[in-house]
Amino acid sequence: MMLFPYHLQRKIVAGLRITPFEYYKIIVHRTMLSELSYDRIPNFTAADCYQTLGIGRNEYIDLLNVYKGKLCSSRPNTPESSSSILDELLPKYPLNCKHLEPWFIVRTGAVSVDDVRAQTHDVQAVLDRIIDNCVVDEGNIGSGLQLSEIPIDIFRELYRQGLIYVDVPIRETDCLFVPTLDGFIMNRVTGDSCETMLYKIFLSIDAHSSVSQLAADLGVGTQFVINAASLFVRLGFAQRVEPPPHKPSSEHSEDTASLISDPASAIETKKVAFIFDSTITAYLMLGNLSADLKKHSVTMFEVGKLTGLR
Fold it and tell me: How far apart are CA 255 and CA 33, in angstroms?
């Protein structure tokens, strides 16, 4: 029940024709076939599975009950197996990507000539552009196309067909911050070393520390932290700190003049800090609160802090 290895997509999606949708569908299929609890799926795997298949805790329980009902009502002499019954219940296509950024990179997966011919003229034109920008030469992969360069409706259609995949490029110098968590699934699986390390990195994310600094502080390989950071951004559990836009010197002088004329604008905004423990957040999560407040309580419980950036 490991996470889909997004850092190996070039080999897995393009080479083996295994998309994240197919991968997580197999995981859910095997878990349901064994009638295992949803809690057996590690947290980050469950979150990615939910965003790809739309199957969370409640959906899993409902599907499992329907599957058991169909299994009991099926005739003993029919050729329909338990596996085929389950296949009919599982989704046929992936959900639209929930978290997308203009700087995400789009690349082609396993695309055949028949796949290209089956598309409309507009989709073919976009697909040709993606292929041209993903040409592999002497072991080097092309730069790909940024998501901002592709019409979103065409992107969704190609993604739905499994003809493209998305890379989330993270550099060593990038800084991340954790926004208010949405869609965070609290499955704590003990004994999973990868899950434990991901939590360790996730809880250490700081808007003022670069990825390389984070790796050095934790004593973890930089590439592993880059892969983890890319996953967190993909899931929407972290966001990249964007550098402030560069202003011409004339604008700088105008800003300085405005600060001199209005000293109040130069005063730093005050922030409020408070200390809390897990008992408070547990009460907040169990209480009858609005959905937005519950997101804040989950963030406080899992991350231990609320960012002031958003």
Answer: 64
